[in-house]
Every structure is written in C-alpha cells, then in structure tokens.
Amino acid sequence: MTAFDHARPGILVQHSEPIFAAGLAASLASIPGFEVLKDTDSASVVICDYQTSRQFTELDRATSVVVIARKARDFEIQEAMSRGVLAYVVASCTLDELGSAVSAAASGRRFLCQAAAREVANGLTTESLTLRERDVLRLLAQGSCNKTIANGLGIALGTVKAHVRAIMAKLKACSRTEAASIAVARGLLPEAALSEDARTPRRTATSATRAAAQSPASVFA
Fold first, then answer.
1. Domain's final residue, options 66, 95, 123
2. What is this structure's pTM?
C-alpha cells in the first residue's frame, strides 16, 4: 500500500447510490490515516458523484471535492475541474489511486486517475463543440427536427442545418441518433437528454437496414 503524504483528512462520502457509497466508505476507512465522517461540518474532503459535486463546488468553496464516476467522460471531467473539483477518479481505479486523489484534494492539489487522464488526453485530439452547437445537439438528442430546433433557439433553419453538419463532422457520426449516443458517451449530454428512440437499440435487421440506408439529406432534415 502506498504511504499517503497528508495531514489526517476528514472525509465525507456523499454518493447518490447508497450501496456504492457504503462500499466506498469502507474502502476509504481501510486506508491508514483516513477518517470517514458522517457530517459535513468537520469534513475537509467530500467524495461524491459528478452530479452531487455541484452542490459543493457552487455553494461551499472551502471543501475539497473528489468526484468518483462510473465512467470517465472527457467533457464531464473538464467541466467538473472548471467548477473547482480537485480530483476525479473512476470506480475501477485502484485503492492507491483513490487514496492519492483524497490526499491531493486535502492538500489543495489536482489529481486524475489513469483512466480519467487518458480520457482527457484523448479528448485533446477531438474538435470541441461551440456553445451554440451544444444547444442544437441537446434538442437534436431529444428527437427535434431542424425546424423545431430553429424555432426553439430563435435562429434560421439554414443556420441549424450548418450546425448539425458541424456536429456530425466533429463527432464523426453517420446519423442523428449516433451523434446523440456519442455525445452521451463523451459526457456532452446526460443520458436522460436522449429521446426514447435514441435510448432503445434497434431490434430488427430491417430497421437497422433502413437506418443504414438513410440518405444524407434526411440526416440534416
């Protein structure tokens, strides 16, 4: 076990999944020198899921935040760090990485586990979406057609089509559904933002064939 260099941190586990939180607390308690607490008053480090981290970074800058996620997503990692999250690890990380993340956060330093660092590095090779393209992507993922998107955002239909083309190119997607799925995988959208069609896999060869045969014009309609 790595010897962690830190003043004894008081750690609060605030994960949204109770069973996962219990296992996380037990793992942290097994690390020599770590103290797992049950209240926020004396905690110096909070370890939580991505969504829960918002309440701490937006309301309590005095507490160091460590995010532990099921999966490393480039956009979520960068967004969390920009809000003040100091460390980001995934559930598959080693106990040494988890301990290092808490120690780094307690000392005011940043830390990424190997999987998170690799995801961020991979993201550097992909072109990022503009704020307006993300607005279009959000509505596209909900199943909105270009005309509905144009009306919703108050922009011209031609502008929407240009944004859709740019989104498809940047995400290297062949269809609107694939673009939405890729966006969720990268953390650009929460899974809840997907339409029912995008969340439900194609069930038959016929429907898959129809999707593959979709014309370019229909993709941007």
1. 123
2. 0.67
